[in-house]
Amino acid sequence: MKRLLILISILTFLLSACGGGGGSPTPAAEGLPADASALAAERGLTPDDIYAALKTYMPSGQTDPYIMLASGGQSGQVLVIGVPSMRILKVLGVFTPEPWQGFGFGGSSNKVLEEGYIDGNELKWGDTHHPSFSETAGEYDGEFAFINDKANARLAVIDLRDFETKQIIKNPNSINDHGGAFVTPNTEYVIEGPQYAAPIGWEYASLDEYQEKYRGLITFWKFDRASGRVDEAQSFQIELPPYWQDLCDAGKLVSEGWIFCNSFNTEMATGGLELGNPPFEAGTAKNDTDYLHIIDWKKAEEVANGGSVEEINGMRVITMQTAIDEGILYFTPEPKSPHGSDVTPGGEYIVVGGKLDPHVTVYSFEKIKSAIQAGGLDSDVYGVPVIPLDKSMEAQVELGLGPLHTVYDDKGYAYTSLFLDSAVARWTLGGPYADKHPEEGWTLVQKLPVQYNIGHITAAEGDTASPDGQYVVALNKWSIDRFANVGPLLPQNFQLVDISQTGDQMRVLYDMPIGMAEPHYAQIISADKLKAFEVYPEVGWNPETMSVDPNAVTSEDQTRVERNGNNVEIWMTVVRSHFKPERVEIKQGDHVVWHLTSLEQTRDATHGFALSGYNINLSLEPGETQTIEFDATMSGTFTYYCTEFCSALHLEMLGYFLVSPE
Amino acid sequence: MRSLFSRKSDVIVLLPDGNKRPLGDYLFPSAILMLAALILMVSMFLPYWSMKMTAPQYPKGLTVEVYINHLEGDVREVDALNHYLGMPPLDEGGRLERSISLVAIVVLGLLLMAAVFVGNQWAAVLALPVLVFPLIFLADLWLILYRYGHSIDPTSPLGSAIDPFTPPLFGAGTVGQFGTVASVEIGLFMAIAAGVVVLVGLWFHRAAYKPIVDARKKVGTAEQEASST
Prior knowledge:
By secondary structure, chain A is mostly beta strands. The model of chain B has no long low-confidence stretch (mean pLDDT 89).
């Protein structure tokens, strides 16, 4: 009410300012301070603009109540963004070397990147799609985050104590993925769903043998919280038909123990436009329906641990036949070429975006369960039982063109991105959610235009059992005219949408250009759930092991250089504003092992360590220890220096690395 | 408690000259001296002095707290900054004092306990170290600060640019972009309070034991007179 009054007074002022040809500024008592009113009039800001500005402006020194983790798409990275100010806080190196973080330029991060190489091929990028926070009881717990690399079927683990990538794990049997990363409600498993079918282990097989040899493969990566790593030995996969499985979501609460994944090529199209075949875009859209995959992961876990598996490339694989026999895998039809598969906060429903169908289709988990119990289901060509649509569907809601992905709030509304309509649709959930909103259940409430071509959509704590409401972010693929022209490659446009009021009161608050990545999905966590280190807990901290490094030197007295044959080992300290030692003299051909420990314990007292000519650049955060190892192949006079402006005498923070010729 | 410390106790002390005084008169000063010892012991666990430093890039400021046997707070960072000025690490000041401080405080407490059992003016001598302890602490701290500000290494980055100085024992000062505030902390106030309590205890001690001493003298003089006549 108060807000409304303020808005009315602003509106009144602006109207009078326009009509009266610049009348005297409104006194502060009526709304904005006089100088702010004058500024608003000068810039031609509408009351909506002022509302948006007041909602998003973050005064210096104040921090955002929410943190968004956004995928970086083909940048291979993850972006950390404050909401609602929409300020980028950090770019995390994940699959791509990130010199700012010293990620991939010496040190333990090299090992992380190397874990993701395929047969010795040095992959220096990834296509990150869907970040996922670790969960406890269906709520984000702020401990870890996971993200997939669609291009190479890899999964990365980010530890949110220091926001660093700790592990990259290559899927031994898939060469691309998409439906990941999603976690089960207690992060028992991180799920990596497949995308384009290939023979298991991406062995060669002709496309003529597509139906017999090509397969989908969903991976359940077992996550070990104590070590902060995926445990491959405890993980398993399920063989699926080659239907191009897409997004997945884990059931929670009433549907805990189940996974729901889309698919979009039940036609089993194999392309070949150049051969006169229908192109993939047409071949995969022939059937009216594709199959929503319904997977009982708790049963699958029992079967895997019971040993009814085939071991392929060291990974336990539950065959499709076992999955059918054991009642692990079911299908139900879904509108063709769907995208999102999103479980409601209470786990009662699964909402599927039709993409080429103007509806979202809502499935009832209760109905699915009854149909499975009743049995007598027909099968598809691979023998997978198919639940008829009328036995699984709860509702269909017509929203508009191109519904993709759905998120939820605390008021029983769902929000679906409409790609073709370039809009966010707010609609009502029915069933147990019907009392939370004034409108009738399963009805469209508002379509808010966004700019432009929205892909994914994300909401504050939107994937949890208790979404917060407040904000939705539209992850728009095109920005066209939203920003200044900076050449033919345009930034993406993240639009912050206010969903704090009921009914048709959604509005766009802010446009945020993303000029270093093409994000797909993002998740938004309440900032108070994150408990990151301010500085590493002890001097000598190894971020790889998350413990004190045995090669850490905790005082300058312990620094030294030791030679053992051609091996030279250096124990160095780093502190404002000097390295110790400041001279390292070795011979060409020596093998160098160089341990660096930051003695700092002050927040933000980060040092860099760049070694000219040797492609080495570390970021040594307060307390951090890193070890670099290389062969001194080049002779000459090199310098190492601090690459992070650490102090008034930062430029003076250097040393000489003297390599005498052989 | 009331009956124990009541000065109208039914237990009576018989003085050499035949006068009588209630037992409470003797228990009371003993209790007060023991209280002083207790206050002193507790002060060991609390900071005696602190230096707070503020600068634009330290929004929470930096604090060093001096306990009688150790330093706490942002010692590492203050040392890191001070190395530019060529000042020695904080830990190097008052090492000897800190190493013996706990023993010294316990000895002071034991002296107070001993004073309880001394029924004459020597009790005041035993209690005296507790009275002067806060002064010794401050004098020693000043000396440490003096040495600290006068041990500037001229070869340090900024060592040649600053003149020797003594950081203030109390109150505000400035070093570079830092504003400093030095303050006496609760521990030292407790040590001072222990001294005040000792004075109170000694006053009652004197009130209780002086009649005994006087009575002894009187009786002694009387006996002397008796034997000489």
